[in-house]
């Protein structure tokens, strides 16, 4: 089962996205901010991280850079999630080390497709179910 770490400061967003992904066969863990996301990445070594870019004191770009700087977590794929759809935000997230970028509110089929591209054979079969 693929393990997904969701780093998101909004509890409603965490809950909704987490439940939607769990229903599709993913194991989900959460972190509420950049520092706890960095610690969780090291502790869990998830298969993929969904990183909110608009976190509080330490934004998602800085958290991503720190995850990338640690040899133990450097290879964990990170997909940026943000409410901002500007091209400059996408470029900034990719420059920080994210492998992909998606906007909120989350379009689940699109996000699942991006996760499938990262996870390959680890993608749960249920992830392909619409809804």
From TrEMBL:
| UniProt cross-references to InterPro entries, sorted A to Z | CheY-like_superfamily, Sig_transdc_resp-reg_receiver
> In the record, which positions carry 4-aspartylphosphate?
52
* Keyword presence, DNA-binding: no
Report domain Response regulatory positions. Answer: 3-119
Instruction: Give UniProt keywords alphabetically.
Output: Phosphoprotein
Phosphoprotein: is it a keyword of this entry?
yes
- Per the record, a Pfam family? Response_reg
Q: Which PANTHER family match?
A: HISTIDINE KINASE (PTHR45339:SF3), HYBRID SIGNAL TRANSDUCTION HISTIDINE KINASE J (PTHR45339)
Q: What is this protein called?
A: Response regulator
What organism, scientifically named, is this protein from?
Answer: Devosia neptuniae
């Amino acid at each position: 089962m693929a393990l997904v770490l969701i780093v998101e400061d909004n509890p409603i967003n965490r809950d909704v996205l987490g439940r939607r992904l769990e229903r599709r066969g993913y194991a989900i863990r959460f972190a509420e901010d950049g520092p706890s996301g960095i610690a969780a990445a090291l502790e869990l070594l998830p298969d993929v991280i969904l990183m909110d870019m608009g976190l509080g004191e330490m934004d998602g770009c800085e958290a991503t850079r720190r995850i990338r700087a640690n040899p133990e977590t450097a290879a964990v794929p990170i997909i940026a999630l943000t409410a901002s759809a500007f091209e400059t935000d996408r470029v900034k997230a990719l420059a920080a080390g994210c492998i992909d970028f998606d906007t909120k509110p989350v379009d689940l089929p699109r996000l699942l497709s991006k996760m499938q591209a990262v996870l390959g054979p680890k993608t749960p079969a249920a992830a392909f179910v619409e809804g």
